[in-house]
Specification:
heterodimer; A: 270 residues; mainly alpha; Cytochrome Bc1 Complex, Chain D, domain 2; two-stranded antiparallel ribbon; 12 helices; 2 strands; B: 567 residues; 4 strands
Chain lengths: 270, 567
C-alpha cells in the first residue's frame, strides 16, 4: 500500500508541478499598482505631460483599446488623415476647445462618438483621479498640439465632490444634487443625461436609437416613465437588436421631480 | 454627509486600514484561507446533490447499491462540513484583522445577510446530522421518503447559503452603478447590493461547477479506495463508484461553458474595460492555460473510458475507433490552445463592445475556438456511447437503421460545426458571433436525439457479458486522480480570474485597495499560490477520507449485486 500511496502522491505533485511550470513559462504580466499623482497648483506642462504618459500607458488602461488598430481611434498617430489627437481635438465639436473636447471624451465618452466606432469607451473620471485625468489630457494635447492644461484645472476638478458618476461627468455643475445640478428643465436633463448620444429629438442628436420627436404618439406618460426607469421593460419594435443598450441607470440619476418633468415633456411630443 | 465620510475614510486610510501577516503577507493569507474554504464549500455543496440523486435512484429504482453509495457520500460530508466551517472562520478572522476597513465596509452593507448566513449554516449542519445518523433508522417505506426529503432540504439550505455568499463577492466585482466612493455604505439597500449584475450568473455557474467538482472528488475517493482494496468485491464497488463520479463530472462539465458565457456577457455589459482586461488585457494568457487544462480534462476523461472498455466483454468491437477519437481530441486541443485565437481580434472586440449584440457578444470572444471545442464535446460523447454500447447487441428489428441514423446525426452535427467554423472566416464579425449558437445547438441536439435513439434501441438488448467491475488496470485510477487535481486547479485559476479582474479595487470603482498588495500578480505567482491551495486542500481531503475509513467499514457490495449489466 505504501508504494501505491507514494505513486498517488507522485501523480498529484507531478500534475501540480506541470501546471505551475507552464504558468511560469508564459509571459508574466502584472497589473499595475495605481500611482497617486500629486500635482500642485504650479505644475509645469512638462510635468503634466510626463505624468500623463504614465497614465496613458499604465493605470489608465488606454492602450488596451487605443493603439490596436480598429478597436478605437489612434491617438498618438494619424487617424484617417486627420492627424494625431492633439491636432484634431479642436475640430471635433464646434464650439468646443481642444481641452474641453478631450475632457468630455474622458468624462462623458458617449456624448460624442467618433464615427466608425462603437460607444465602448468607459467613463474615465470614474476610475481616474482628477490629477490623472488632466495629466492624460495634457499628454494627448502634446500629441501635435499645445498643452494648455494648468494646475487650476486640477484644482477645479477636485472641488467637484468626488469622482463624477456615469453620464453626469463633466457636464454636471460641481457637486449639485442629481443631474444637471438638480434642474427640472427637461432640455437640460436630456442634455446632462446624454439621451441625445443615441436618440434624435427635434432634429438634434444621433440616430442610433428611435427618434423621440413623436414619442408621445407611440407611448403615454406611463410607458415613457417605465421605459426610462427600466429600459428592458418594453423594447421598441424594430430595435430588438439594440435592446439592452439604453442605460439602466437613469432612474437612480434623476430626482423624482426631474423624472416627472422629463416624462411630461416627452409625452407632450406627439 | 459625504464630506464627513470622505474625511473619515481618509483618516481610516492612514491608520488602521490594513495590517500585515507574518512571512507570507496579508494577501497570501487571505488568498489561501478564501480558496481552501471555497474548495471545501464546493465539495460540501456538490456532494449532497449526488447523495440525494443516488438515494432517489436507490429508492425508485430498487437498486440497493445506490443507497449505500449515497450513504457513503454523506459520511464524507460530516468531516468536510467542519473543515468548511473552520476555514470560513479563519477567512473571516483574517479579513477582519488584516483588512479591517474593507471588512467594516462589507459588514456595513451586508451585515444582515451575514447573520442569516451564519444561522442557515447552523440549520444546514443540523439537517446533515439528521440525514446521516437517521439513515438506518428511516430506511423503509414512508420514513425513507422523509429521509430523502431531508436530503433535499440539505441541498436547499446549501444553495441559499451559497447564493448569499455569492452576493458579497459579486458585489465586489459589479456593484450597482449608482453606488460611488462617496456613497455611505449604511444607506445602501441590501437587496439592491445583492441583486447586482453578476450575482445570478455566478450562482448558476457555481452550482454547476460544484456538481463537476463533487463528481471529481468522489471519483478520486473511489479510486483511492479501489487501489487500497483487498478483495475483488470491494474493488468492483469502488470501480463502479469511480465511474459514476467521473460520469457526473464530465456531463456537468459540458454545460459549464454556457454559464461561463453568460457571466462573461454580464461582465462586458457592466463594464467594457473590465471585460477587456479579462479577455484581452493582462489576463489574456490565463485563457491559454485554461484551454490547456480543459484539454487535459477531455483527454484524461476519454482515456479513462477507453481503458474502462477493456473490462467490458464485446468492447473489442469498438477499440479500433479510439485512435481516431484520440486524433480528433488532440487536434482540437491544439487548435483551442493556440494563443492568437484566444485574444479576440479588434473587429470582434468592436462587435462585442458594440452593445449591438449583447448576448452573442460574449460568445464571440471564444467563437474562433468554438469549432474545436464543439468537436471535442462530440468526440467525448461518442466515447460514452461506445462505452454504453460495448456489451450489448441490440435486438430491435430496426437496430441497423437506428445505428445508421445515429451515425448520420453525428456527421450532420460535425458538418454543421465545421461549416459554420469555416464560413465564419468569410463573414463579418457580428454574423460570425451568431454562428457559435448554431454550432452549440447542433451539438446539443445531436447529443439529445442520439441518446433517445440509444435508449430505445437498448430495449431488451442481448448482453455480451456483464461489465467486469473491478477488472480495471490501476493506471485508469491514476487518471481519475489527474482529473480531480485538474478540476481543483482549474477552480483556483478561475477564482483568480474572477477576483483578479477587479485589479486594485476591493469593490470595483467604489472601494480602492490602497494596501501594498494592491497590484494584481502575474500568472506565475498566481499559479504557485493555486498549487499551494490545491495541495493544502487535497491533503486535508485525504485526511478526511482516511478518517472516513477509520470510522466505518467500507460499503462494498456482495458478488450478486455487482454482476449487473449497465452502469
Amino acid at each position: 500500500m505504501w508504494a501505491t500511496n507514494l505513486k498517488i502522491v507522485g501523480v498529484v505533485l507531478g500534475t501540480l508541478a506541470l501546471y505551475t511550470l507552464i504558468a511560469n513559462k508564459i509571459p508574466q504580466v502584472q497589473s499595475e499598482v495605481p500611482q497617486a499623482l500629486t500635482l500642485g497648483a504650479n505644475v509645469t506642462p512638462e510635468q503634466l505631460v510626463a505624468a500623463g504618459e504614465k497614465v496613458f500607458n499604465g493605470i489608465g488602461g488606454c492602450t488596451t483599446c487605443h493603439g490596436l488598430g480598429t478597436r478605437a481611434p489612434n491617438l498618438l498617430t494619424d487617424e484617417r488623415g486627420t492627424g494625431p489627437i492633439g491636432v484634431r481635438c479642436a475640430k471635433r465639436e464646434p464650439g468646443k476647445s481642444c481641452k474641453q473636447y478631450l475632457y468630455e471624451s474622458l468624462a462623458d465618452p458617449t456624448a460624442y462618438v467618433v464615427s466608425g466606432y462603437q460607444p465602448i469607451m468607459p467613463v474615465m473620471t470614474r476610475q481616474l483621479s482628477p490629477e490623472q485625468v488632466w495629466a492624460a489630457i495634457a499628454y494627448l494635447e502634446a500629441q501635435g498640439g499645445t498643452v494648455d492644461v494648468t494646475g487650476d484645472d486640477i484644482a477645479k476638478a477636485k472641488q467637484a465632490a468626488g469622482p463624477a458618476t456615469a453620464a453626469g461627468g463633466g457636464a454636471t455643475p460641481a457637486g449639485g444634487p442629481g443631474l444637471a445640478g438638480g434642474s427640472t428643465d427637461p432640455k437640460q436633463i436630456i442634455q446632462a443625461a446624454g439621451c441625445l448620444a443615441c436618440h434624435k429629438l427635434e432634429g438634434q442628436g444621433q440616430v442610433i436609437a428611435p427618434d423621440l420627436t413623436h414619442v408621445g404618439s407611440r407611448r403615454d406618460a406611463d410607458a415613457i416613465r417605465r421605459k426610462i426607469l427600466d429600459p428592458a421593460s418594453s423594447i421598441t419594435q424594430g430595435y430588438e437588436k439594440l435592446a439592452g443598450i439604453m442605460p439602466k441607470t437613469f432612474g437612480s440619476m434623476m430626482s423624482a421631480s426631474q423624472l416627472e418633468a422629463l416624462v411630461e415633456y416627452l409625452a407632450g411630443h406627439k | 454627509m459625504s464630506d464627513v465620510l470622505l474625511l473619515v475614510q481618509a483618516a481610516a486610510d492612514t491608520t488602521h486600514a490594513y495590517r500585515d501577516f507574518p512571512l507570507i503577507g496579508a494577501r497570501a493569507a487571505v488568498w489561501i484561507a478564501a480558496e481552501v474554504h471555497l474548495m471545501f464549500a464546493a465539495f460540501v455543496l456538490g456532494v449532497p446533490m449526488f447523495a440525494v440523486v443516488t438515494e432517489a435512484i436507490g429508492i425508485f429504482g430498487g437498486d440497493e447499491r445506490y443507497d449505500r453509495l449515497s450513504k457513503e457520500f454523506t459520511r464524507l460530508l460530516l468531516v468536510a462540513y467542519s473543515a468548511t466551517a473552520i476555514w470560513g472562520a479563519i477567512l473571516v478572522f483574517f479579513l477582519a484583522t488584516l483588512y479591517p476597513r474593507f471588512w467594516a465596509y462589507l459588514t456595513a452593507v451586508f451585515g444582515t445577510s451575514m447573520w442569516v448566513y451564519a444561522s442557515l449554516f447552523f440549520v444546514e449542519s443540523f439537517t446533515l446530522y439528521l440525514y446521516y445518523y437517521g439513515w438506518d433508522r428511516w430506511k423503509k417505506g414512508r420514513a425513507k421518503l422523509w429521509h430523502w426529503t431531508l436530503g433535499i432540504l440539505l441541498n436547499v439550505w446549501g444553495t441559499i447559503v451559497m447564493f448569499i455568499a455569492n452576493s458579497w463577492l459579486t458585489y465586489m466585482m459589479t456593484p450597482p452603478r449608482d453606488i460611488t466612493p462617496t456613497t455611505d455604505p449604511t444607506t445602501i439597500k441590501l437587496w439592491h447590493a445583492i441583486a447586482n449584475a453578476t450575482w445570478m450568473p455566478i450562482n448558476v455557474h457555481r452550482l454547476i461547477a460544484n456538481v463537476v467538482f463533487g463528481g471529481a472528488i468522489v471519483g478520486a475517493y473511489a479510486s483511492y479506495r479501489f487501489l487500497a482494496s483487498r478483495t475483488a468485491e470491494e474493488r468492483a464497488h469502488y470501480d463502479w463508484m469511480g465511474y459514476v463520479g467521473n460520469f457526473i463530472a464530465i456531463s456537468a462539465l459540458i454545460v459549464l461553458p454556457f454559464a461561463g458565457y453568460w457571466l462573461g456577457r454580464e461582465i462586458y455589459q457592466y463594464d467594457q474595460s473590465m471585460g477587456i482586461t479579462m479577455m484581452g488585457g493582462f489576463m489574456s494568457w490565463l485563457w491559454v492555460i485554461q484551454a490547456f487544462l480543459i484539454a487535459v480534462l477531455f483527454l484524461t476523461g476519454n482515456y479513462y473510458l477507453w481503458v474502462g472498455m477493456e473490462r467490458i466483454p464485446g468492447a473489442e468491437r469498438f477499440r479500433p475507433y479510439t485512435k481516431w477519437l484520440l486524433v480528433v481530441l488532440v487536434l482540437g486541443a491544439i487548435v483551442w490552445g493556440t494563443p492568437h485565437t484566444m485574444i479576440a481580434d479588434s473587429k470582434e472586440l468592436a462587435a462585442m463592445g458594440g452593445s449591438h449584440h449583447p448576448f452573442l457578444g460574449a460568445l464571440g470572444v471564444m467563437s474562433a475556438k468554438n469549432t474545436a471545442v464543439n468537436l471535442m464535446i462530440l468526440t467525448t460523447f461518442l466515447s460514452f456511447l461506445m462505452y454504453r454500447r460495448a456489451n450489448r447487441r441490440p435486438v430491435v428489428p430496426w437496430a441497423d437503421t437506428g445505428t445508421r441514423i445515429q451515425g448520420a446525426m453525428f456527421l450532420v452535427a460535425a458538418g454543421i460545426v465545421l461549416f459554420y467554423g469555416i464560413r465564419g472566416y468569410f463573414v463579418e464579425a457580428i454574423v460570425r458571433i451568431g454562428y457559435s449558437v448554431y454550432q452549440v445547438l447542433a451539438v446539443l441536439s445531436c447529443i439529445l436525439f442520439v441518446t433517445v435513439i440509444d435508449i430505445l434501441m437498448a430495449r431488451g438488448a442481448q448482453s455480451l457479458g456483464a461489465i467486469q467491475w473491478g477488472k480495471m488496470p490501476p493506471r485508469s485510477q491514476y487518471a481519475l486522480f489527474i482529473l480531480a487535481v485538474t478540476f481543483t486547479w482549474l477552480m483556483g485559476l478561475m477564482g483568480f480570474a474572477r477576483s483578479g479582474i477587479r485589479q486594485y479595487w476591493h469593490v470595483w470603482q467604489v472601494v480602492e485597495d490602497t494596501s501594498k498588495y494592491a497590484a494584481t500578480p502575474a500568472l506565475g505567482y498566481a499559479a504557485r499560490m493555486i498549487s499551494l491551495c490545491v495541495l493544502i486542500f487535497l491533503s486535508l481531503v485525504a485526511f478526511v477520507f482516511w478518517l472516513g475509513g477509520l470510522a466505518e467499514k467500507s460499503t462494498f457490495v456482495s458478488q450478486g449485486e455487482a454482476r449487473h449489466v449497465g452502469h
